[in-house]
Automatic annotation (TrEMBL):
HAMAP family: PGAM_GpmB. It is an enzyme of class 5 (isomerase). GO terms for molecular function: phosphatase activity; phosphoglycerate mutase activity. This is Probable phosphoglycerate mutase GpmB. Pathway: Carbohydrate degradation; glycolysis; pyruvate from D-glyceraldehyde 3-phosphate: step 3/5. Substrate binds at residues 8-15, 21-22, 58, 60, 82-85, 104-105, 151-152. It comes from Cedecea lapagei. Signal peptide: none annotated. The gene is cobC. Keywords: Glycolysis, Hydrolase, Isomerase.
Length: 215
């Protein structure tokens, strides 16, 4: 059975400022670096064989810290990037107009193909995340990869594995440096293929990780 670990990057300056990132970027905060070292210590115990990361700066830095602990090289895969949030990237959440807030909410309010102007839909994001996840099945037998990605990207991936449409309302909180695990398997009581073993585990963190209200 193939086990794939999913880690969201450490807290960034723009997470803390409640500034929308998307495929724009900001550095990890001191707390974010601490989170990354703590998730790395947890990853060291998991027998990780490959680290595959979004190529954005915040995931790259988190992956570097995990790779040092696990003794792995890093493979960068742009399919693991965060949702492209178009014209709202770099904007602070509390500065959005009613119309702009409507664009953001339509991404995840059950509207198929909702998108922020010049951005990606959740369906487009989910499709590329599944491509990146399924590429893990081509790794040598016995591999145990760890993917480093983003909140919307991993939330959409896990939710769609659970059978929800990509554009479903979000009901899964994935905090910074949380660990989730998905398995590709066959078993009598579960659907064949990908299943969710754990989602959003932060038991390895000793400091609170921001939630959606705080970021
Ligand atoms: O700001 C964003 O783009 C999302 O809300 C979270 O993205 P992140 O997981 O890359 O911080």
């Amino acid at each position: 059975m193939l086990q794939v670990y999913l880690v969201r990057h450490g807290e960034t300056q723009w997470n803390a400022e409640r500034r929308i990132q998307g495929q724009s970027d900001s550095a990890l905060t001191e707390n974010g670096e601490r989170q990354a070292w703590q998730v790395a210590e947890r990853a060291r115990t998991l027998g990780i064989t490959h680290i595959i990361s979004s190529d954005l700066g915040r995931t790259r830095r988190t992956a570097e810290i995990i790779a040092e602990a696990c003794g792995c090289e890093i493979i960068f895969d742009a399919r693991l990037r965060e949702l492209n949030m178009g014209v709202l990237e770099r904007r602070k959440m509390d500065t959005l107009t009613e119309e702009e807030e409507g664009w953001r909410r339509r991404l995840v309010d059950g509207t198929p193909d909702g998108r922020i102007p010049e951005g990606e839909s959740m369906l487009e994001l989910s499709n590329r995340m599944h491509e990146a996840l399924n590429a893990c099945r081509e790794l040598p037998a016995g591999s145990r990869p760890l993917l480093v990605s983003h909140g919307m990207a991993l939330g959409g991936l896990v939710s769609t594995i659970l059978g929800l449409p990509a554009w479903a309302e979000r009901r899964l909180r994935l905090r910074n440096c949380s660990i989730s695990r998905v398995d590709y398997q066959q078993s009598p009581w579960l659907a064949s293929g990908w299943v969710v073993e754990t989602a959003g585990d932060i038991s390895h963190l000793d400091a609170p990780a921001l939630d959606e209200i705080q970021r």
